[in-house]
Specification:
This protein is of the alpha/beta class. Helix content is 45%, strand content 19%. It has an eight-stranded mixed β-sheet with strand order 3-2-1-4-7-6-8-5, with helices on both faces. α2 links the parallel β2 and β3. The longest helix has 25 residues.
Length: 264
């Protein structure tokens, strides 16, 4: 593995017109390297806004996954239609670090034959968006969550999708891709990797993700909900039930927010 592999950045998206260009451009603005070939694929899940138009405008190749719902199906389609030796799965509200190419190469490099590695970046939560209107206490809570997330990955070898998972094509095939379930496809992939003896390795650089999902439901509430969902999955609660819990919590939060806004 002396040569740097070509890499496919696969971005699942659904109604992300305000975010998608930042995500795509973070993958394309890295300095060109002769030994690396980067392709950026946005897999749209049926957006009704300007996501597809914006993704193409910013330089991504766009695929459409309209037959099977869910991020897992989108990412599997992107992988099946890609050309890279390495897959990197990036959320549409996240941006890669400027040195991601060298970080991916360094993290996946090994001299051990048939040794498989699944990499992830350290997590940085962007709380600077003025539209989120976060107060100082909320910003400090997000920094604490960020710290805890990076400690979890380092010590328990458990990475999540918002950390931009990456691995060789051969490793992805070994794991049979993402399980096409409505929620926690990233958690299941990493668990499957550990069962197969795949090394979970943390890169030194940070991927930056939006704080919007913590802001919608509330930082503490979101953190508790995430842990409840993961525990319920370990207890073999059906994925469709978990999805309904998750969506229900966010719908109630949005309704409550709209009522509060109307009163004011």
């Amino acid at each position: 593995m002396g040569n740097k592999p070509s890499i496919s950045i696969i971005i699942p998206a659904l109604n992300e017109e305000s975010q998608i260009c930042k995500s795509v451009e973070s993958a394309l603005t890295t300095p060109k390297q002769k030994t690396s070939i980067v392709e950026v694929i946005v897999v749209d899940g049926g957006s009704t806004d300007g996501t597809v138009k914006n993704a193409r405008k910013c330089g991504a190749r766009v695929l459409h996954q309209n037959t099977v719902r869910g991020r897992a199906a989108q990412m599997n389609l992107g992988a099946s239609q890609s050309h890279g030796d390495v897959f990197l799965f990036l959320h549409a509200d996240s941006q890669l670090p400027s040195d991601y190419l060298s970080q991916v190469h360094q993290t996946l490099s090994t001299s051990v034959p048939n040794h498989h590695i699944l990499g992830a970046f350290r997590l940085s939560i962007d709380s600077s968006d003025p539209q989120l209107q976060l107060n100082p206490i909320q910003i400090q809570l997000l920094k604490l969550i960020q710290f805890g997330s990076n400690c979890r990955t380092r010590f328990s070898k458990m990475a999540y999708g918002d950390q931009a998972l990456f691995l060789h094509r051969t490793t992805f095939r070994l794991l049979n891709g993402f399980p096409e379930i409505p929620l926690l496809e990233d958690v299941r992939l990493v668990r499957n990797a550990r069962r197969h003896g795949v090394e979970i390795s943390l890169a030194n650089s940070f991927v930056t993700t939006s704080a919007r999902r913590w802001n919608t439901l509330g930082i503490i509430q979101t953190t508790i909900l995430n842990q409840v969902i993961i525990l319920a999955d370990l207890l073999r609660i059906p994925p469709n039930t978990l999805r309904n819990w998750y969506r229900g919590a966010y719908k109630r939060a949005l309704i409550k927010r709209e009522k509060h806004r109307f009163k004011n």
